[in-house]
Amino acid sequence: MLRIRSQSSVCEQEAKFVQDRITAVEKHFAELCTTFAAFTRKSARLRDKGDELAKIIHTYADSETVNRSLSTGLINFSATLSVIGDYRDAEVQRLDAKVVAPLSQYATICKHARDDVKNTFSARDRELARRRHLDKVRERNPRNRQMISQAESELMKASVEVTRVVKGLEEQIDSFERRKLHDLKSVLLDFVTVELSFHTKALELLTKAYQDVAAIDETKDLEDFRVTRGNMNGEFRETMRVSDSVARLDTVGRTSFRQAYSLTNLASRLVPSPVASQKFAGRGTESADSTRTGLTNSSESVQVEEYPDSTEETESESIRDKPVRTRHKSM
Predict the structure, then answer these.
(1) Which spans does this entry mark as compositional bias, Polar residues (predicted)?
(2) pLDDT per residue over 248-285, tens digit each?
(3) What is the CATH number of the domain that holds 95?
């Protein structure tokens, strides 16, 4: 009896130990899976930001028309960043396939291992039940060999089942432990390999990117800028000269027009009208005798007839009908 209890206790302790190991593996592997998945997502975001940076640099390089060396350097730099983004994308894909996926499978693996442990406990419980039943039969009917033999037979079957389950559990637990060690080692080695491969290519490409940026000729680009600025200043000065010439011609045209209009107005004012000429002829006939007698004491007189002023439009229209001024000399 003591030996049977001792075996049952050992079996129970072993099953408890296995169950604790499975629980620990499930917990830690779940944490590793969550952390590696977050690392992979961060790498994917960094890949996306690298692609965005390469696109912005390439757009700036296309818009740069003055600094040709800078434009070339930026184009090469953006191309290198794009290649780095391609390698980072491969890194993300490999991490997801070789690290995250194997770790995520351990939720199912641990669940199956826990079910095997439960089956072991169930078999042990059935064996204990058959053993208690046999003890009761022996106590109540010690002379009933048939019932005792049947109980012993059932107990024997339960013991064989427990032995089989325990042996199978040991094999499964060994396989579980071996797979756990192998998978964890493979996952970590794959992680290091993927990262090492990416960083090796990234180091090579970043060296090229450094050379592309270092190849930008600042002096040559500054000279190109100054030449372009000088050409623009020359064109601006030429444009200003043309504008000044046009303004001067416009001013001269307006001044000439005003002077011509003033001279025309003055000439029209100085030309005597026909009415004034008739008046002048009549007066000359009537005063011919007086003019002749007073030749020695004659003095020059000027008679000017004023007419009211009008606007420029009225004055220009009536310039041939109304005399502005009439001048005649009396002798």
Answers:
(1) 287-302
(2) 656 655 665 555 555 455 455 554 544 444 444 444 44
(3) 1.20.1270.60
